[in-house]
Amino acid sequence: MKPGARLPLLLLALLVQAPVLAAEPAKAPAADSKAATGASREELVAYLARIDKRMTFTSDYKGTVRIMGLSKQNSETAVEIHVYRRDTSRDLLFMTTKPKYMAGSGYLRVGNNLWEYEPTVGQWTRSTMRANISGTFTCEADFERSRLAEAYEPKDEGTEVVDGVTYRKLFLTGKPGTEVSFPLLRLWVDPDLNIVKRIGYAPSGKPLRTDLIRGYQRIKDPLTKEYVYHYKEVMEEEAEEGSRVLVRYDEVVLAPLDPSIFTKSWLESRSR
Amino acid sequence: MRSLLRIALRNLFVDRERGLLLFFVIASASAVLVGMMSLTAGVATEQRKAVLTLISGDLNVGGYFKVHPDTIAPVIGDTPGVRAAVEPLLPAGCRLRERGRGQAAVGSGRHRSRSFMMSLDVKQERDSLGLLRVEKGSLEALDRPRTVALSLPMSERLRVQVGDVATLYAEMVGGKRNALDVEVVAITGRAGFLGEAAGILVSNATLRELSGFRPESSSVLQLMCGEGSDLEALDGSLRQALRQAGFEVLPASHEAYGDKVSPLLREDWAGQRLDVSTWEDESSFLSFVTDGLTALTALVGLIGIAVVMVGLFVSLSVSVRERTREIGTLRAMGMHRRAVVGLFVLEGLLLGLLASTTGALVASLLGLLLRGTITLPEQIASLFFSDTLPLEPHLPAAVLAVVLVTLGAVLASIIPAARAATLSPRSAMESL
């Protein structure tokens, strides 16, 4: 069965189990866990690298991300963000275009620093990987390429069978000195290496956010001629207040981008 | 004189009920006054302790740096240079600690809260850390890079616990804004209003990274000398030494660091300026607590003394009327008017002295017994800088209360005594 056909069924099964899975504590598995597959650290890192690779574009990327509130308290949330990224050099810029009062604000990564631009006052503020983007609870990691292998230390948590499908569970711990959005992360990966669910935790083990990846889009990279699996729809649930948003990744274009896009002056010029 | 004393003492026990009532009223007034003064002293001590632990030394040499006239950062760029100028002047028993200060916002999820931020050197200040009340976690962990301790009210507002990640936002030198992800390693207990005023505690290294200060820099050098030091003289010599070392020193002003920032920002200068301040300057924004309590003590004292005076005046006036025959007999036997006045004043003095001393003693003993045992509601605990009723009875305060109440009793007895003295032996004998 192709990933595109099987995913809705698997996600439906996972959604039914979501309340149980979301309450799972962030405790790392014991080394002799019976459920563990016995994979070595190197194998797990290689496994993560394969996930990263199939989600990374060689070509420049331009896309539109739409964030919509799903629960009562944030039903008014509707944010549109244009994302520009160059995975080969880890350049990243994203600019909010809707709602109107937020239009022109954006984020630019320069080296390891993420800068936030506020067009009303024309001021740049250094931000962090953890900071919420554009008043939502999305963060930088939702817009940039997957870098699980380089940012996290994996631990095998074995497998979990949901509705006849075996998911591999991994518990990831952020490497010391590496900035990550979630210091601890738990992943459920299907047999086709699609992450179908992930929970981000604080170092204390408190769940911060649960994501259900409801669909992927398969895009052929014009440079490598290989297919890249990019998120199509992700449902994010904030653990603390239980508010949910749906993040849609639309209008993806893989074509060379002007290098001037990844500069402060380019973003400033958008709101002039 | 001895016979007058004997007559006065005898008269005190003639009408026991009235005497006991007056004794109780005077003793209560004295006890309330001693209690209020104990509370004022206790609050002042707790406040000083909190201020010296969190925001200030006995004396402080702080820095303000302006890259441009329109930005300001609380930093001493050349901290080793300032330290070299200050250290030779340190009296024996004084020590120097380097602290950082500033303002920051803390963000966690969609919650944000703003507060003053303090930083310290964890390795050098283990004794200071011991004075801070920790609700959860460990302040020792602040030694790790990118960690923070938040006050209990802040952690409640941000809904974070030990082990959670929060983001600090602060203005850097030059005006740019910076952010830093930090791990919450401790939740500190309430420290009165300072829990709000200095709700963020980080290590010096974390503050330097967040504020863009260079290594070895700090915001303030705090001199810890203990009570009884001549801070005024030290203040003057520090200013002089710093000027001689080539630093520009701001004129003295009785204001806290936070209150100085805005006026300094309006001033048209750039570069480094130093400021020498005392712990009283740095806690000037909290003086309303002790000032208010002192005013309240004065008011309560006045009311107490007024009650004593009215009670004694009425009682002695009645006594004069009742003892007209006795006064007449004494006058007929040759007692002078002055002696009659002295007799009644002595009665007031004896009653005032005995009762107020008893009241002051009881209140002082109760203060010692109840110290640290009565738990206070949250709002009052913030006001008093202590979770329990901070009572601190002092002998001078008790003596002052006794003197004031006794003086009131003496004053109250003068008019009835003068009336008694104006009675002629004849009119006194006519009342038979």
Structure write-up:
The complex is a heterodimer of chains A (272) and B (432). Chain A has 272 residues and is α+β, with helices and mostly antiparallel strands. Chain A is 17% helix and 42% strand. Chain A has a 13-stranded antiparallel sheet with strand order 6-5-4-3-2-1-13-12-11-10-9-8-7, with helices on both faces. In chain A, a hairpin with a 2-residue loop joins β4 and β5 (113-118). Chain B is an alpha+beta fold and 432 residues long. In chain B, 54% of the residues lie in helices and 18% in strands. Chain B has 16 helices and 10 strands. In chain B, α1 (2-14) packs across α13. The interface between A and B is medium-sized, with 23 and 18 residues.
Structural class assignment of chain B: alpha+beta
H/E element order of chain B? HHEHEEHEEHEEHEHEHHEHHHHHHH
Greatest contact between two chains: A-B, 23 and 18 residues
- Biggest sheet of chain A, open or closed, and with what strands and sense? 13 strands, antiparallel
Helix content of chain A: 10-25%
* Contiguous uncertain segments of 5+ residues of chain B: none
| Mean pLDDT across all amino acids of chain B | 86
Spatial sequence of strands, sheet with the most strands of chain A? 6-5-4-3-2-1-13-12-11-10-9-8-7
Helix content of chain B: 40-55%
**Oligomeric status:** heterodimer
Strand order of the largest sheet of chain B: 2-3-8-5-7-6
What separation lies between the terminal Cα atoms of chain A? 50 Å
Rg of chain B = 31 Å
The count of helical stretches of chain B stands at 16
Q: Please give the alpha-carbon distance between the first and last residues of chain B.
A: 28 Å
- Taken as a percent bin, the fraction of beta residues of chain B is 15-25%
Give the structural class of chain A.
alpha+beta
Determine the strand fraction of chain A and express it as a percent band.
Answer: 35-45%
Layout of strands and helices, then pairs:
The complex is a heterodimer of chains A (272) and B (432).
Chain A lengths: L2 H20 L18 H14 L6 E9 L8 E9 L4 E8 L7 E5 L2 E6 L4 E5 L20 H4 E11 L2 E10 L9 E6 L5 E7 L5 E14 L6 E12 L5 E11 L9 H7 L2
Antiparallel strand pairs in A: 1-2, 1-13, 2-3, 3-4, 4-5, 5-6, 7-8, 8-9, 9-10, 10-11, 11-12, 12-13
Chain B lengths: L1 H13 L1 H39 L4 E8 L12 H8 L8 E14 L2 E10 L5 H6 L2 E4 L9 E5 H7 L6 E7 L5 E12 L5 H4 L2 E4 H8 L8 E5 L6 H14 L12 H10 L4 E8 H4 L4 H36 L1 H9 L4 H34 L7 H7 L10 H28 L2 H6 L2
Parallel strand pairs in B: 3-8, 5-7
Antiparallel strand pairs in B: 1-9, 1-10, 2-3, 2-6, 2-9, 4-7, 5-8, 6-7
Helix pairs in contact in B: 1-13, 2-11, 2-13, 2-15, 11-15, 13-15
